[in-house]
Description:
Two copies of one chain form a homodimer. By secondary structure, chain A is an alpha+beta fold. The first copy, chain A, has helices spanning 62-69, 82-87, 112-124, 130-149, 152-164, 178-182, 186-196, 212-221, 277-289, 295-303, 336-353, 357-375, 378-390, 395-399, 401-406, 410-420, and strands at 21-24, 30-35, 41-48, 91-96, 101-108, 202-208, 246-252, 260-267, 307-314, 322-330, 426-432. In chain A, the strands form two sheets. Chain A has a six-stranded mixed sheet with strand order 1-2-6-3-5-4, with helices on both faces. In chain A, strands 7-11-8-10-9 form a five-stranded mixed sheet, with helices on both faces. β7 of chain A pairs antiparallel with β7 (246-252) of chain B.
Amino acid sequence: MAFPLIPGVSGSDTASGPTIGNFRLDNGMEVVVIPDRRAPVVTHMVWYKVGGADEPKGKSGIAHFLEHLMFKGTEKHPGGFSKQVAELGGQENAFTGHDYTAYFQRVAREHLAAMMAFESDRMNGLALTDAVVDPERNVVLEERKMRVDNDPGAQLGEEISSTLFTHHPYGTPIIGWEDEITGLSRQDALDFHDRFYTPNNATLIVAGDVTEEEVRILAQESYGKVARRAEPPPRLRPQEPRQRASRRVTLADRRVEQPILQRYWRAPSYRRAEAGEAEALDLLAQILGGGPTSRLYRTLVVEEKLAASAGTWYGGTALDETRFGFWAAPQPGQSFATIEGAAERIIADLAANGVGEAELERAKTRLIAEAIYAQDSQSTLARYYGATLSTGGNVESLQSWPQRVAAVEGEALRRVAQKHLVDGHSVTGLLEGLA
Amino acid sequence: MAFPLIPGVSGSDTASGPTIGNFRLDNGMEVVVIPDRRAPVVTHMVWYKVGGADEPKGKSGIAHFLEHLMFKGTEKHPGGFSKQVAELGGQENAFTGHDYTAYFQRVAREHLAAMMAFESDRMNGLALTDAVVDPERNVVLEERKMRVDNDPGAQLGEEISSTLFTHHPYGTPIIGWEDEITGLSRQDALDFHDRFYTPNNATLIVAGDVTEEEVRILAQESYGKVARRAEPPPRLRPQEPRQRASRRVTLADRRVEQPILQRYWRAPSYRRAEAGEAEALDLLAQILGGGPTSRLYRTLVVEEKLAASAGTWYGGTALDETRFGFWAAPQPGQSFATIEGAAERIIADLAANGVGEAELERAKTRLIAEAIYAQDSQSTLARYYGATLSTGGNVESLQSWPQRVAAVEGEALRRVAQKHLVDGHSVTGLLEGLA
């Protein structure tokens, strides 16, 4: 799912949609203002155009580790500012992706200036000591243990991704490989911060009860004073070579209670796709496996009772070639092979015969409706803008998304299924229990 | 197979073996002299401690491309010196590995000084123009097309390696991925040369009718005058994370006439292994699949007639974790599954019950004999030294190899089979025809 923004649905704005503010500070930092006057709150986010896929060789996990260390304080705010945010009644969080790293707070509108002061201060520089860095490295290692080592499904997910992307860094988990996390140093974090956390590599998103002009003044007083420290390199990652063989990974673990079958195909992202292809892939994911009326669900779950659940998804918001995924949870006694065969027949049928008009219209309605609902959440909307602007899109491409989805013709779905959902572009993963 | 050098078998030398000369020039270049007085010829090799696994991100193939460009000339020798070598009746060649790149000539002993002058001159610097680089890039792309695109077996080999080493650069083919070769520039080659082709990153090996003193004088006059241009970085490649799932790749192509089953396991190299482990793996490869008396061959080929051929191999001469491999060519009508099952039973039996004394002795004799025969070839012997010294070994470790092999106990083979030949460290590759 991707890029929602339907004109004319947001709060007090007119039928032509909320007027999105979009400008740059002198130091190159881009600013997006999304007015939303329903409540006197604001969502304040800073997105850096750097993530797990931009890490130096052998330093996997440094983007995520730095995200942790950003909460450890600066000269001006030793110990960080989380306590102050909490005392002001705010919420805060951060997340690291392959293509971006983001920090956000949600506060009453009168505290926006304070958040900008805090956030621009830690963009400007961190005060890290080994006494802080060393225990935090253990926190991250523990996080990896909890999330991956204790979860066979997560382990298989890493395996599928790393055998699908053997060369492109999307095959490396965002949290990093254990032995490389262990080797990450204070200096690695500072170097990464210096190189990438410069205002010309960042996007400020403010959504909420605020005007563009108010944000402009506050941003100039805070972010505007951060020096442009570096020119981040072009984001050219090693591209995945052509896949020649069909690939299959199997993980058996006694902790597995529900077996799962997954298949990931390589598919172009919005950034990399030909015109209309990514929108068609979003619709294809709806028709094949988006909820209980989808083709795969109806056949595998409802009619043939082979699986307890099944679905498809498409990760279109990415800088480089991305993934289209299928998953199914077999009913007891049903083999992976039976489910794979049935799913392959359903996909082959769509690739050969296309989709029905009514089915396509329903999928468009559902997809666009999801986007409309998403607007109801200030922070979801802000996230859409942040993710889009960090992966090669812009305000216009996000705003025109519903029209582009609406314009997709059935033939385009047949074409992307034929082109991308083929065995030579995929890895099949099987998660099974041990008797 | 690895590291042969048996004392007392080479030419006119005494029972304590040929006296190997081993010293360094002032600029840090290591020199090895292997006297061999049987004929008035010398083998002259320069080994650089850099290969495909040392390439910058996104520049796969640059080590091999530079190897090609090294023949294109310098200021002193525009157009290179291949013609002169041929006119002197010499032979020359070059090769690129993951861990090293080597250049060699075999000439009459009186031309050694000329070879050193040529070779040290192109170590000192290259005169490359786009007019030379651009067509040579096409030569390499054509080489890749011939070797890989036209050979389904080679394609599957790339797939097996890249899904076994998803993170470590051994998963990247030495020739490079096509789209990255296309992007390699003259400047990339010059940068790589500048950084790695410095005398302190090179080993000179001279084998043949020459004394250590003669080589020292000649080397000082030639290589000794090349400035130490750079300090090559430590050879720390990203290590492969723990594998959690069993992995399988299948390639079907109508050009395949003989199906092949392969399995590669991750295994420590001589450089990375615990004491005695690598020697045990070399012996294990002999006992399991080294020729017609090996366990796998006897069962799969001779007794059960499941396969037309079968064998195992171990790539111990590597800087980092390497591969132990099994392959079998099924007889018509025999399934991959039957052969896999039989091979797994044979391996499991060895891992459970170990090897027999007589069988172990035969394997040692065979392995050590291969090393003795290898000494008969001046260039093979020189290659052993070059490869060993470029992957973390030294003259002593190479010379003590036969004694270390002789000292391996049967229990060690059982242990390395149990530890390394397990499903969780492997990729299985199937090459099949299309009806």
